[in-house]
Amino acid sequence: MSEQRISKEEPMLERLMRVLLEEISACDYLAETLAEKQDAIVKNNLLQINTLTGTEQLIVNKANLLAKARQDLIGDLFLKANIKNMGFTLSNLIENLGLAEQTNWKKVQQRLENAVAKIERINKENITLLNSSISFVRDMIHLLYSHDDKPTNIYDKSGLGLKRINSKSMVDCNI
After folding, report:
1. Helix axes of 10-43 and 103-144: crossing angle, nearest 10 degrees
2. What does the pLDDT read at residue 102?
3. Which residues 6+ apart lie within 8 Å of 86 measured at CB?
């Protein structure tokens, strides 16, 4: 029975496979860009950081469009197969349309999951790297800012909050 569904939906399945492969490509490119950005952060190359951030945004926009196209195609395939009360996920599609026997679908799903996991890992590393850098700069400001009677305004790590401190300069502490 599932073989009939597959043959009827062949063009739509081919479109879905094309979208998935394009999405994997976008995710791989995004991961490469994030890794380059990480190097630029370490080297404090502001021009490269700005350039890579622009590239990153373009890739994210493209990946979001592809993810939406994937979700739409999966939803359409479920509707055409008259399968209801299912989450419109690639896993459910593979299981319910009998695609599990076709190893290329499982491989593509695994490649997409791996690409997303790599992006998440690099993003977490970049967040840690940036938070450490911000913390270092904030601590250096606390250490080096001249000591006077007026409190000093210091932004917190989110860049939004303003904190007033009485600074203690390392010079004023006879270091």
Report:
1. 20
2. 74
3. 78, 92, 96
- pLDDT score at 4: 40
Q: How far is CA 29 from CA 26, 44, 45, 97, in A?
A: 5, 22, 20, 30
Question: In order along the chain (175 residues), what is the average pLDDT of each group of 10 residues?
Answer: 45 92 97 96 91 96 96 89 78 79 86 96 93 84 64 63 55 45
**C-alpha distances in Å from residue 172, one per residue of 81, 148, 169:** 76, 10, 5
Integer Cα distance of 109 and 114 in angstroms: 9
Query: Phi first, then psi: what are they for 130, rounded to 5°?
Result: -70, -40
What 8-state DSSP symbol labels residue 175? -
Rounded to whole angstroms, the Cα distance separating 68 from 87 reads 15
Specify the pTM.
0.73
CA-nearest of 166, 164, 125, 124 to 145 is 166
Which residue is associated with the tokens 């994210």? 60
∠ CA 48-155-161 to the nearest 5 degrees? 115
Say which CATH class 2-126 falls into: mainly alpha
